[in-house]
Write a structure and sequence with these properties.
By secondary structure, this protein is an alpha/beta fold. It has three domains: about 35-40 and about 50-170 and about 235-295, no CATH class; about 300-400 and about 410-515, P-loop containing nucleotide triphosphate hydrolases (Rossmann fold), CATH 3.40.50.300; about 515-544, no CATH class. The chain has helices spanning about 25, 30-35, 60-75, 75-95, 105-130, 140-150, 155-170, 205-210, 235-270, 275, 280-295, 325-330, 360-375, 410-425, 440-460, 470, 475-480, 520-525, 530-540, and strands at about 175-180, 190-195, 305, 315-320, 340-345, 350-355, 385, 395, 430-435, 460-465, 490-495, 500-510. A six-stranded mixed β-sheet has the order 8-9-10-6-11-12, sandwiched between helices. The protein has a four-stranded mixed β-sheet with strand order 3-7-4-5. The chain has a two-stranded antiparallel ribbon with strand order 1-2. Strand 8 (about 395), helix 14 and strand 9 (about 430-435) form a beta-alpha-beta unit. Helix 3 crosses helix 4 (about 75-95), helix 5 packs across helix 6 and helix 7 (about 155-170) packs antiparallel against helix 9 (about 235-270). The protein is elongated, with a radius of gyration of 34 Å.
């Protein structure tokens, strides 16, 4: 059971189906939306696994995770159980990794503390599953059965009782009585532990003792004020004093430890790592499912996508939205406008045009986010979804990063696009937003035609949000070069009122009218000729 995972089914190869291109992670703001939880018990360490490691195209792994995520969304008590269990697992991992004292007895007491943490963790899991008996995922069922198998055994119950007795004795130690022998000059010559006590010593005053003013003396009142333990002593003296305490513990606990020592060894051999190895999985699940729960709490739908084979090259989304924008609007008490989207036999590559701020970029991001979340094994921001995995997600968005000296923006854009075209396969997803905006419309349309032609011959899925309206008029010519089964089509961000330019944020499948409605944008920001002249008049004759 040491290989049991919540993110990978039994026998799965964690390296199978790995993605290798991750520009989309930051471009789509996924790194801001989904992030594994940080290690809560080791705050000085950045123990957050990179999100990249969890992306996969392995359909078996994705299906396994989707079922686990569904359980965590259906059963809040299950989510709460993992939230409580995670720091227990982390503490157990930390204790197991600490260097233990040299004393045999104290080593066994450390083992007792480890076993006690182990039993507390199992109690947490046992109680959590008792509150959620109808889990449906293979991952949660296996974890539940493992917990039942361990906690139901006689050895486990004997272990709990034995460890509880030793733990109680350890917890009740409050002080030690030390005997010190002196020479004729009152210098210490020998010292040893007289007894271990269940009460602490308290500071006192010798005058109180001499005058018998301390009527409540119970044998634990010192005749002098107590000093802080070895605060200014040398490391050697501290080590010697500590060893003396360990020796005392050896004497007191040797017989008790000898009785249950074999029990501890047997359970340690069984390896508590079966649970501590789950910490990274649980950090990821809590971070990701916590984000999905946040969307639900904002009234935004999320759904378990119907997983389709990679070879089917399917994506069908109902009421899809960009969750990043959705949460921003929720904070403003506004609602996002969802859309339907699908790659199908009539449209594997789309040219998406329409007015500025009409929703083109929002939809492009939403499509990429849905694909990426599904390949993390998570629910997606839509009412319904059918999605096939892709082997890579490529994005080509406006960027100033990575420019070589003297290269220029157009050169940088073309260099990034060349990399995409060289590596894209028929099972890839390519997202482009305002690609080639750094050059003239004539040059950009020519280059874009070549790019779209190449993508259509490769046969990949692509969504290209653009202002190149001339390119949309060449769809027929582009389809003549396309590979069999790959069609290019148009999508348009609609205008609600063409007179005012009010956006509907609806994306429809139709031939564009070639208008970008730039004037309405200019009016919004007050930069039309009429608006500027009117403002100049208002400022006085000197502006005429």
């Amino acid at each position: 059971m040491d290989t049991f995972r919540l993110l990978y089914p039994e026998g799965a190869d964690e390296d199978a189906g790995k993605l290798h291109e991750f520009d989309f992670l930051k471009a789509l703001k996924l790194d801001e939306m989904v992030q594994p939880l940080r290690n809560k018990t080791q705050l000085w360490k950045d123990a957050v696994p990179a999100l990249e490691r969890y992306f996969t195209s392995d359909e078996r792994v994705i299906s396994y995770r989707l079922a686990v995520v569904e359980d965590l969304l259906r059963f809040p008590a299950l989510f709460d159980m993992l939230e409580k269990a995670l720091p227990q697992m982390e503490s157990l991992t930390q204790l197991c990794g600490e260097t233990q004292p040299a004393s045999d007895t104290v080593q066994n007491l450390y083992s007792a503390a480890e076993i006690e943490m182990y039993t507390e963790l199992l109690d947490t899991l046992q109680q959590g599953f008792a509150n959620c008996p109808d889990v449906g995922s293979d991952g949660m069922r296996r974890l539940s059965l493992l917990v039942k198998e361990i906690t139901g055994g006689e050895d486990y119950q004997a272990l709990k009782e034995g460890v509880a007795k030793i733990a109680d004795r350890v917890r009740n130690i409050r002080s030690v009585t030390i005997g010190v022998n002196l020479d004729a000059t009152l210098r210490p010559t020998e010292a040893g532990v007289v007894q271990i006590n269940d009460k602490p010593y308290r500071s006192g005053d010798i005058l109180d003792r001499l005058l018998r003013l301390d009527t409540k003396d119970d044998g634990y009142r010192c005749i002098t004020p107590m000093l802080a333990y070895l605060r200014r002593d040398s490391p050697q003296n501290q080590a010697a004093f500590q060893q003396a305490l360990y020796n005392a513990l050896d004497v007191v606990f040797k017989s008790a430890v000898r009785e249950w020592h074999p029990v501890i060894r047997r359970y340690l051999r069984m390896n508590t790592g079966v649970f501590t190895n789950l910490t990274d999985d649980i950090r990821f699940l809590l971070g990701a499912v916590g984000y999905l729960r946040g969307l639900q709490n904002a009234g935004l739908p999320v759904c378990r996508p119907s997983l389709q084979p990679m070879g089917a090259r399917v994506m069908e989304l109902k009421d899809v939205y960009n969750p990043y924008v959705g949460m921003q609007l929720f904070a403003k008490k506004e609602k996002i406008v969802p859309n339907d989207f699908a790659f199908d036999e009539d449209g594997m590559i789309y040219l998406l045009t329409g007015p500025n701020q009409g929703g083109k970029t929002v939809l492009t991001y939403a499509v990429g986010i849905c694909q990426a979340l599904m390949q993390l094994g998570l629910f997606v921001p839509a009412r319904e979804a059918r999605i096939s995995p892709v082997d890579e997600i490529y994005v080509h968005f406006p960027s100033q990063d990575g420019m070589e000296p003297g290269q220029g923006r157009l050169g940088e854009e073309c260099a990034r696009m060349a990399h995409i075209l060289e590596n894209t396969t028929a099972y890839s997803l390519v997202l482009m937003d305002e690609t080639l905006s750094s050059t003239s419309a004539i040059e950009a349309t020519y280059i874009a035609f070549e790019i779209v032609s190449t993508l259509s011959m490769i046969g990949c899925r692509c969504l290209f949000a653009t202002h190149l309206h001339d390119l949309t008029q060449q769809v027929a010519a582009l389809n003549e070069k396309a590979a069999e089964g790959v069609r290019i089509d148009n999508l348009v961000a609609e205008i609600e009122d063409k007179e005012t330019g009010v956006r509907s944020f609806r994306i429809v499948r139709k031939k564009p009218d070639g208008l970008s409605y730039a004037r309405s944008i200019a009016e919004k920001y007050g930069v039309t000729w009429e608006q500027i002249m009117e403002k100049r008049k208002e400022r006085g004759p000197e502006q005429e």
